[in-house]
Amino acid sequence: MTSVVAFLPSGVAISISPLRVRRTSRARARESPFAKTSEIGLWIKPNLVFNDARPGGQALAALKRMKGLTAKDEQAQPFWRTKTLDEMSVAEWESLCDGCGRCCLVKLEDEDTGEIHFTDIGCKLLDGKTCRCIDYPRRHRKVPDCVRLTADVVRNLSWLPVTCAYRLVAKGQDLPDWHPLVSGSPDSVHEAGVSVRGRVSASESDIPPEHWPRRIVKWPNRRPRARR
Which are the contacts of 181, defined by CB distance < 8 A and separation ≥ 6? Predict the structure, then answer.
């Protein structure tokens, strides 16, 4: 019988099957190509990001040499094209979040294969309309395991959504045209169909864990269709 491990804000993984729910430690959660560091981050909120990145001067210098950027080029380029994640200021780091809310969805891990599955169930603090946290100031009291996203964590977490700006920049890729930093509008992420707006079926508080596997969906880890 196949069971799945649910990644919860409480800091534990729950193994779910149609017949039982049992708790298991995070260390036991099997690593997979899509979830390499279950010990580091199981629950990441894009709106709860802080810049704890370590200085990466050598990495930045190497990146500049690789891109052949001059000082004049750097001034003309947006910061995400000229800086590594380690070199960004707090404001730059936080602005990378597109506000899609995909990371605030409950994820399940297949115990047998290690495969990660997204669901359309939201964190209890996720507002499905605004795609924002409903109690940001007290988020850590209500969800103690909100993870502090850093450059190192981004590089180690391969299960971040394929559309995630942190993941894209870490790989040396540019931001898509629907990203608010590119479009200049905070609504572009919604207009492009990337955000979870209108697609969250329920809160984790409303559905028993044993029913979560019924809510597995594929869209949270897919890129939006190209606009004509």
Answer: 78, 80, 95, 96, 165, 175
Q: Which residues contact 137 (CB under 8 A, 6 or more apart)?
A: none
pLDDT in tens, the chain (228 residues): 444 555 544 334 555 544 333 333 333 333 322 222 223 333 322 333 333 333 334 444 544 554 555 555 556 789 999 999 999 999 999 999 999 999 889 989 888 888 889 999 999 999 999 999 898 778 778 887 676 789 999 998 877 899 999 999 999 999 999 999 999 999 999 999 999 999 999 999 999 999 999 999 999 999 987 665
- SS3 assignment, position 32: strand
**Tokens 């052949």 correspond to what residue?**
68
In a domain, 13, yes or no: yes
Q: Are 12 and 29 in contact (CB under 8 A)?
A: no
How far apart CA 62 and CA 30 sit, in angstroms, is 34
Residue 70 lies in a domain: no
Would you say residue 208 lies in a domain?
A: yes
Domain count, the chain: 1
The domain containing residue 214 runs over which residues? 4-53+88-221
Q: For residues 84 and 60, is the Cβ–Cβ distance under 8 A?
A: yes
